[in-house]
């Protein structure tokens, strides 16, 4: 099996464009089709969890699928049409087929009076109802009269679908990267994150940690995953929930609940040289809510561009393909790579020759620097690593305190380790 590359911004954009039209929800065939497409780029292990399965304090709901939906006026014209945009139907709408007056219908219509040209995104997962979403402008143009309402959906016992992609590392300790797969045609809020996570997964080669990518519906998916992996979450060293990954706003990192987890420090370091915001944890937003619930309290933060609900296009039809920027997606991808390049090499070492400076020359460590344009920096990095490797300080501590680039510090540590002067 060969997998399709996601190397360029154009590749990312193409994947986003393929995923965008699918009608996803927390369950159903839209999620399966999404995972099938992602599976053309990276191998995925698909999990199907039956309706009714108890997961922590929740229960896996019935599976929702939809084929068509519309509101027709008296002339038979579709004035609201699911085929035009899947946002037009409230997610998890129960089937309906009847005629009613506009007055009666209004109780089932959702608009955004403040943004009259946009269609809102609404769901009703846990209380059975039906509804349509439309632009206020469309509603205002509807004359009184009788309308035909039709939602061809099914809500049956079935499954909740999620997927994992694992890149094995040298150690069983894990890093998780999680993104939600439950939003229909919203480009920034979930599709961009899915594409970027897949692209990042492709770039990982022989990592130190084992990387586990999770593609699962928000809330119930994360809860299901945690319920099924409760006995192994202590392996998770760090993680990121990736969402809203392609809008033109600057990057935002939301700290883990712990606030001082390794991932929090690494992100602060990596983001320092690009436009960004760092915010403290709050029990709202995406699946960091579940990973950072007090029973788990994992070192998992959340990387977005403009955060949850922080942009006017959020949860509306304006979160479309034009709203996501290729450059922004490329920058988010670069940030993921830089973050895990630091985290993956960050360790604490012990200087095995801590009394006075060890003689570098006789171990060939000066020769290795000869002729390098960055010889001075490489030498400083060795001296800093030797000095701070007391078992207490990590390489990130060394980089921060010395002001030297992390790459240089990590390279020095490798050379010193190979020369027998450091141990893990
Ligand atoms: Zn959302």
From TrEMBL:
Binding site for Zn(2+): 183, 189, 315
Cofactor note: Binds 1 zinc ion per subunit.
InterPro entries for this protein: Cyt_c-like_dom, DUF2172, DUF4910, UCP015244, UCP01524_HTH, WH-like_DNA-bd_sf
Stretches assigned to the Cytochrome c domain: 153-274
Keyword Methyltransferase: no
Pfam families attached to this UniProt entry: DUF2172, DUF4910, HTH_47
Cofactors named for this entry: Zn(2+)
Gene3D superfamilies: 3.50.30.90, Winged helix-like DNA-binding domain superfamily/Winged helix DNA-binding domain, Zn peptidases
Keyword annotations from UniProtKB, A to Z: Heme, Iron, Metal-binding, Zinc
A single GO molecular function term of this UniProt record: electron transfer activity
Name the record gives this protein: Peptidase M28
Organism: Amycolatopsis regifaucium
Lineage: Bacteria, Bacillati, Actinomycetota, Actinomycetes, Pseudonocardiales
């Amino acid at each position: 099996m060969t997998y399709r590359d996601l190397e360029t911004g154009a590749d990312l954009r193409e994947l986003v464009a393929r995923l965008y039209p699918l009608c996803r929800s927390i369950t159903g065939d839209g999620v399966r089709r999404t995972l099938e497409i992602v599976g053309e780029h990276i191998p995925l292990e698909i999990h199907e969890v039956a309706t009714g399965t108890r997961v922590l304090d929740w229960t896996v709901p019935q599976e929702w699928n939809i084929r068509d939906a519309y509101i027709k006026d008296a002339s038979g014209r579709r004035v609201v049409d699911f085929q035009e945009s899947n946002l037009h139907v409230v997610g998890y709408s129960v089937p309906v087929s009847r005629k009613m007056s506009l007055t009666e219908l209004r109780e089932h219509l959702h608009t955004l009076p403040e943004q009259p040209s946009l269609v809102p995104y609404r769901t009703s997962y846990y209380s059975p109802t039906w509804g349509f979403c439309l632009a206020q402008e469309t509603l205002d143009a509807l004359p009184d009269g009788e309308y035909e309402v039709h939602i061809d959906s099914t809500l049956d016992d079935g499954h909740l679908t999620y997927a994992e992609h694992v890149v094995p590392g040298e150690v069983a300790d894990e890093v998780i990267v999680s993104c939600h797969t439950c939003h229909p045609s919203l480009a920034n809020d979930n599709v961009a994150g899915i594409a970027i996570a897949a692209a990042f997964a492709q770039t990982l080669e022989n990592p130190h940690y084992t990387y586990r990518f999770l593609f699962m519906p928000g809330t119930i998916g994360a809860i299901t995953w945690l319920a099924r992996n409760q006995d192994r979450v202590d392996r998770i060293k760090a993680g990121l929930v990736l969402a809203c990954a392609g809008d033109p706003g600057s990057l935002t990192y939301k700290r883990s609940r712990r606030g001082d987890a390794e991932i929090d420090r690494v992100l602060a370091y990596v983001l320092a040289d690009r436009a960004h915001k760092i915010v403290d944890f709050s029990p709202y937003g995406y699946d960091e809510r579940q990973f950072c619930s007090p029973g788990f309290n994992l070192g998992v933060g959340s990387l977005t561009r403009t955060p949850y609900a922080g942009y006017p296009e959020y949860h509306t039809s304006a979160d479309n393909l034009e709203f996501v920027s290729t450059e922004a997606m490329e920058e988010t991808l670069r940030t993921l790579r830089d973050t895990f390049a630091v985290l993956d090499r960050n360790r604490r070492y012990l200087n095995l020759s801590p009394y006075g400076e060890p003689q570098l020359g006789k171990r060939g460590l000066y020769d290795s620097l000869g002729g390098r344009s960055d010889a001075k920096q490489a030498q400083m990095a060795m001296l800093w690593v030797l000095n701070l490797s007391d078992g207490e300080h990590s390489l990130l501590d060394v980089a921060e305190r010395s002001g030297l680039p992390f790459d240089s510090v990590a390279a020095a540590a490798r050379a010193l380790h190979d020369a027998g002067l450091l141990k893990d």
